[in-house]
Each structure stands twice: as structure tokens, then as C-alpha cells.
Specification:
This protein has 139 residues and is an all-alpha fold. The chain is elongated and about 95 Å long. The chain contains five helices and no strands. Helices cover 61% and strands 0% of the residues. The N and C termini lie far apart (86 Å).
Length: 139
């Protein structure tokens, strides 16, 4: 069963990389969401799989025997909450950018960045440095 999950992890990472490299902001958000699920799957694979014994320590025993490690499952629950919050924030941020610039294309959003301030005096012409003048032959 673990090779199937490992294959699913690879497919999720590949799909998320494809989506994140897109120019469309919505695809980037979906790629982040898929990448978060791939990370959760990798954490789940790091724990023990295949055991149907609940991760409970029986009365009188001091350690868990034969059960799955509950720590990766707790980490996944935390990661799901953090991933949801991150995706919600990203969606709000991109929705705000869409309202302002009326596009979801990253290249057009780059063009929407403010230009350099105008009205400043032009830079002075480049003069030769004193070291350059010292090497010139005297006339």
C-alpha cells in the first residue's frame, strides 16, 4: 500500500509544480493547495502504516506497542488548518489584486506595479574618475 501512496505523492508534487509555474493566479493558488496536500501525505507516510491497532496505550502499559504513531496524524491536522488559513489569505490577496487591476495574469500584474517617480532632475553626465584622468597622457 505504501508504494501507491508514494506514487500519489509524486503525482501530487508534479501537478503542483506544473500549476505553480503557471501565469494564471488561480492556477497558482490551486498548485499551493495541491502542494499542501502532498506535504500532508508525506507526513502521513512518515508515520507507520498498515496497522489497524488504535494508537492508544492500554491500561498498565507504559508504551504503545504495534499501533501507528499518533504524532504524524496530529501534525497533519495542524498542517491542514495552517494550509487552509494560508490558502484563504492568498485567495483574498489575489481577489483584491483582481479587483484593483482587473486581471489574473502575473505578467500583467507585474506591469501594474508603480513606475519610478518622475519629475526628478536627470542624473549628471558621467565624468571620468580621477584615477582614469591620471592614466591619460598629458597634452
Amino acid at each position: 500500500m505504501e508504494p501507491v501512496f508514494a506514487l500519489a505523492f509524486g503525482v501530487l508534487v508534479a501537478a503542483s509544480a506544473y500549476l505553480v509555474m503557471s501565469r494564471n493566479v488561480l492556477r497558482i493558488v490551486l498548485g499551493l493547495l495541491v502542494l499542501g496536500n502532498a506535504a500532508n501525505l508525506s507526513i502521513f507516510l512518515a508515520g507507520r502504516m498498515g496497522s489497524r491497532t488504535p494508537p492508544l496505550v492500554p491500561g498498565g502499559a507504559e508504551a504503545l506497542v504495534g499501533g501507528a504513531n499518533p504524532l504524524p496524524q496530529a501534525l497533519i491536522l495542524t498542517a491542514i488548518v495552517i494550509s487552509f488559513a494560508l490558502i484563504a489569505f492568498t485567495v483574498i490577496l489575489f481577489e483584491s489584486a483582481h479587483r484593483r487591476f482587473h486581471t489574473l495574469d502575473t505578467e500583467e500584474l507585474r506591469d501594474a506595479e508603480p513606475k519610478a517617480p518622475t519629475g526628478l532632475p536627470p542624473l549628471p553626465a558621467e565624468r571620468p574618475s580621477p584615477a582614469h584622468r591620471a592614466t591619460e597622457p598629458a597634452r
